[in-house]
From TrEMBL:
<comment type="function">
    <text>Catalyzes the dehydration of methylthioribulose-1-phosphate (MTRu-1-P) into 2,3-diketo-5-methylthiopentyl-1-phosphate (DK-MTP-1-P).</text>
</comment>
<dbReference type="InterPro" id="IPR050197">
    <property type="entry name" value="Aldolase_class_II_sugar_metab"/>
</dbReference>
<dbReference type="InterPro" id="IPR001303">
    <property type="entry name" value="Aldolase_II/adducin_N"/>
</dbReference>
<keyword id="KW-0479">Metal-binding</keyword>
<feature type="binding site">
    <location>
        <position position="101"/>
    </location>
    <ligand>
        <name>Zn(2+)</name>
    </ligand>
</feature>
<keyword id="KW-0486">Methionine biosynthesis</keyword>
<keyword id="KW-0862">Zinc</keyword>
<dbReference type="GO" id="GO:0005829">
    <property type="term" value="C:cytosol"/>
</dbReference>
<dbReference type="InterPro" id="IPR017714">
    <property type="entry name" value="MethylthioRu-1-P_deHdtase_MtnB"/>
</dbReference>
<protein>
    <recommendedName>
        <fullName>Methylthioribulose-1-phosphate dehydratase</fullName>
        <ecNumber>4.2.1.109</ecNumber>
    </recommendedName>
</protein>
<dbReference type="GO" id="GO:0016832">
    <property type="term" value="F:aldehyde-lyase activity"/>
</dbReference>
<feature type="binding site">
    <location>
        <position position="103"/>
    </location>
    <ligand>
        <name>Zn(2+)</name>
    </ligand>
</feature>
<keyword id="KW-0456">Lyase</keyword>
<keyword id="KW-0028">Amino-acid biosynthesis</keyword>
<comment type="similarity">
    <text>Belongs to the aldolase class II family. MtnB subfamily.</text>
</comment>
<dbReference type="GO" id="GO:0019323">
    <property type="term" value="P:pentose catabolic process"/>
</dbReference>
<comment type="pathway">
    <text>Amino-acid biosynthesis; L-methionine biosynthesis via salvage pathway; L-methionine from S-methyl-5-thio-alpha-D-ribose 1-phosphate: step 2/6.</text>
</comment>
Length: 206
């Protein structure tokens, strides 16, 4: 799905976002209009989903360009309400090339029921999908931040953990944020994290 007048790199980023949105929808991670997706281009441009649409039925018009501070390049366009949570990751680490946010049932339920500041994932083979992990004989901590409708304020809370979150993070009663150097890696990490959260939830119910 090429946008007329846009270059190949832009069209590839849009295609990545549309396909990832479909995948997340197939897995039940973007109900209603939940979730947002972004991709950084090699030249630094950032493509992100518009606010409000269904992320499983995106088309090229559902993806817009923002600057590094999260401002849409075209005035009047409305980028994701959670744009600042994406741009802070790109600003923190230039190696990050894609950011995904979804609202799964395990992520929502676990994060609401867990009173502590994190969810610990230990002993799972699938931990190896996360950056820097090479064995199941380890524990990875997924920070849990309280939800806040003021995204700028939430971003300042998340900021203190940047660089210390190999598996991404959870927002209480809300969902997960996961990222990677490219869209396939970000998707694999999201899939891994969702699988592990589902395992934790299942074990707590036993
Ligand atoms: C359907 S409510 C979900 C929103 O409040 C928000 O959390 C979300 O994930 C999607 O917001 P959006 O502005 O479309 O990127
Ligand atoms: Zn959300």
């Amino acid at each position: 799905m090429n946008v007329e007048g846009r270059d190949t790199a832009w069209n590839e980023a849009v295609r990545d976002i549309i396909e990832a949105g479909r995948r997340m929808d197939q897995r039940g991670w973007v109900p209603a209009t939940a979730g947002n997706l972004s991709r950084k281009l090699p030249d630094g441009r950032i493509a992100i989903t518009r606010s409000g649409g269904h992320k499983g039925f995106l088309n090229a018009d559902g993806v817009i360009e923002i600057d590094a501070e999260g401002r849409p390049l075209i005035e009047g366009q409305r980028a994701s309400a959670e744009t600042l949570l994406h741009t802070q990751l790109y600003a923190h680490d230039p190696k990050i090339g894609a950011v995904l946010h979804g609202h799964s049932i395990p992520g929502t339920v676990l994060s609401l029921d867990e009173p502590g500041p994190s969810i610990e994932l230990a002993g799972y083979e699938l931990l190896k999908v996360f950056e820097g992990q090479s064995t199941h004989e380890t524990s990875v901590s997924v920070p849990l931040f309280d939800n806040d409708q003021d995204i700028a304020r939430l971003a300042t809370v998340v900021a203190s953990s940047l660089g210390k979150m190999p598996a991404g993070y959870l927002i209480r009663g809300h969902g997960v944020y996961v990222w990677g150097p490219d869209m396939p890696t970000a998707l694999a990490r999201l899939e891994g994290l969702e699988f592990l959260l589902a395992c934790v939830l299942k074990r707590r119910k036993l």
